[in-house]
């Protein structure tokens, strides 16, 4: 229990009040980086679920009191969290927690892959390196939500056969589902961040002038083989499937990208 001193006309009174349980694991803030210390502690509360997506954060004044800092420092901490995409801040409104996702990474990767063919190749290589390991872990854990997402993606790829936009979105869903199948939220966030890379590669792939229905079906078949390997719990086979998938996709997408680069060179 705690006590609050209240001033009244006839004098001061002490009233007993229950202690408020702090939301954050507040630590003495270092004078060198007060805002960083505050934002780190609030971020920890967001990551471990003490503040659920959509829930409001305490007002700036309350945050400042809990950490023993000024309101401008609390405001800067919230600004940092907003810039990182962890909370939603609006002028005159209370800040709210956002769902943990790869939105910020997706924007960064999107700018990169659209900037040059070199960045696109680097980003696609990054995907291949990361997803090879993800496939093995997914085969070991087979999280139900991830398996269901991959299965739904396969159905949507089949129904979207020949429709580049629908096929691309289903393809992206499959790879996010692959990450979800690991049961690791940070892997899922990373894969969500790479959606812009996958979208760019898929769009290039769809621009092949000689792409046939058999090409579309071959892509589905590679995804199905990967799903089957994961469902069977065969990590080695899952790795082999993802390597084969990227080998085929790289040839097609970079073939188109190289052609586009040549055409741009002739236009100069």
Report the sheet with the most strands, covering strand number, pairing sense and barrel closure. Answer: 2 strands, antiparallel
What topology, given as strand order, has the largest sheet?
1-2
**Radius of gyration, whole Å:** 25 Å
Helix content: 55-70%
Task: Give an overview in words.
The longest helix is centred in the last third of the chain and has 33 residues, at 235-267. The chain has helices at 34-47, 60-67, 71-83, 103-115, 117-141, 144-159, 164-180, 185-193, 195-206, 213-231, 235-267, and strands at residues 2-8, 11-17, 87-88, 96-97. A two-stranded antiparallel ribbon has the order 1-2. A two-stranded antiparallel sheet has the order 3-4. The protein starts with a strand and ends with a helix. It is 67% helix and 7% strand. It has two domains: 31-97, Arc Repressor Mutant, subunit A; 103-255, Four Helix Bundle (Hemerythrin (Met), subunit A). It is elongated. Strand 3 (87-88) and strand 4 (96-97) form a beta hairpin. InterPro entries: GntR_C (IPR011711), TF_FadR/GntR_C (IPR008920), Tscrpt_reg_HTH_GntR (IPR000524), WH-like_DNA-bd_sf (IPR036388), WH_DNA-bd_sf (IPR036390). Residues 32-100 form the HTH gntR-type domain. This is GntR family transcriptional regulator, transcriptional repressor for pyruvate dehydrogenase complex. One of its GO terms (molecular function) is DNA binding.
């Amino acid at each position: 229990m705690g006590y609050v001193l209240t001033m009244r006309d006839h004098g001061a009174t002490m009233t007993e009040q229950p202690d408020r349980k702090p939301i954050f694991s507040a630590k003495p803030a270092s004078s060198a980086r007060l805002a960083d210390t505050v934002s780190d502690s609030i971020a920890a509360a967001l990551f471990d679920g003490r503040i659920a997506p959509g829930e409001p954060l305490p007002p700036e004044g309350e945050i400042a009191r809990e950490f023993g800092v000024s309101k401008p420092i609390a405001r800067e901490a919230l600004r940092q969290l907003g810039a990182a995409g962890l909370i939603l801040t609006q002028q005159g409104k209370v800040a709210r927690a956002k769902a943990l996702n790869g939105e910020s990474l997706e924007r960064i990767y999107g700018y990169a892959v659209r900037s040059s063919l070199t960045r696109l190749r680097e980003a696609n290589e990054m995907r291949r390196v990361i997803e090879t390991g993800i496939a093995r872990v997914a085969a070991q854990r087979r999280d139900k939500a991830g398996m269901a997402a991959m299965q739904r993606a396969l159905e949507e790829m089949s129904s979207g056969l020949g429709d580049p936009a629908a096929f691309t979105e289903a393809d992206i869903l499959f790879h996010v589902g692959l990450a979800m199948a690991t049961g690791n939220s940070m892997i899922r966030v990373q894969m969500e961040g790479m959606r812009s890379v996958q979208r760019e590669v898929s769009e290039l792939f769809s621009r092949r002038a000689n792409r046939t229905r058999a090409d579309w079906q071959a892509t589905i078949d590679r995804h199905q083989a990967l799903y089957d390997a994961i469902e069977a719990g065969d990590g080695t086979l899952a790795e082999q499937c993802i390597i084969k998938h990227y080998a085929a996709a790289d040839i097609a997408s970079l073939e188109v990208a190289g052609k586009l680069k040549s055409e741009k060179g002739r236009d100069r």
